[in-house]
Amino acid sequence: MALFHFKLFFATSENELIVHLVGRDKFHPRLAPFNLDLLMRRFNQIQLWVITEIIFASNLNQRLSILCSFIQLSQLAKTKRDLFAMAAINFGLSSLPISRLNYLWNQLPNHLFKQHSECQSLLSPKRGYKNYRFLSNILKTPFVPFIPLILKELDFIYEGLQNQNLINWEKIHLAAKILKSFRLAKGNNNIEDLFEIYNELTFNDEKIIYNLHTVNSPSLLMNLSSEIQKKEENEFEHLC
After folding, report:
1. Domains of the chain, first to last
2. What is the pLDDT along the chain (240 residues), one digit of tens a residue?
3. N or C of the chain: less Cβ packing under 10 Å?
4. Where does the Ras-GEF domain lie (predicted)?
5. What long-range pairs does 104-107 form, CB within 8 A, spacing at least 24?
């Protein structure tokens, strides 16, 4: 999974961020940020995949096993310097359909609960995502950054700082700083080795990576989550 995200990230240039920032309507259609769009769709897909797999598990034991696997996968993504996947998985785990399943979370082994809490702390928006920024500053390059945060910052700079029909040097400086961090995340390393490993993936590996099973219906997922919550609460009452 990390190799696939590295491939998408390396294919995305700073120019695509500029097109996103200024507005697609101001550029020729062939300059549309296609790779950036793929990254954002992938981020949303991973979130939905996490929710779908947990919600559609057949029983509590399977649901708990899947939850544990996703927490471990999030840790592995961090180890592989794929902060993009780490964030997407954790966003899925912290979504309302999953976070409300208190009985499920109470069954989680302590060491995995601690790992999950550490990841949540890394992605906390407190003090301007201080913990995430610290990690990204010390992490060896190349790494896949938390793309939605980069876009959020660019949008804030562009929309939040008024031009008053003048050149806003502060806006230009801040945007340039973000674009530079995006470029530096790719590092100066030779990425051919990454692509060689990626090309060694079997057809089945690639098929699984591309085609994550998702249900894109928030209302359905919430309804099923509510049913699971009630069922587990009733089972817990009977055990007591």
Report:
1. 2-239 (1.10.840.10)
2. 888 899 899 999 999 998 888 888 888 888 889 999 999 999 999 999 999 999 999 999 999 999 999 999 999 999 989 999 999 999 999 999 999 999 999 999 999 999 999 999 999 999 889 999 999 999 988 899 999 999 998 888 877 655 666 556 677 788 888 999 999 999 875 566 566 555 555 545 556 677 899 999 999 999 999 999 988 777 655 443
3. C
4. 1-219
5. 104/54, 104/60, 104/63, 104/64, 104/67, 104/232, 105/67, 107/60, 107/64
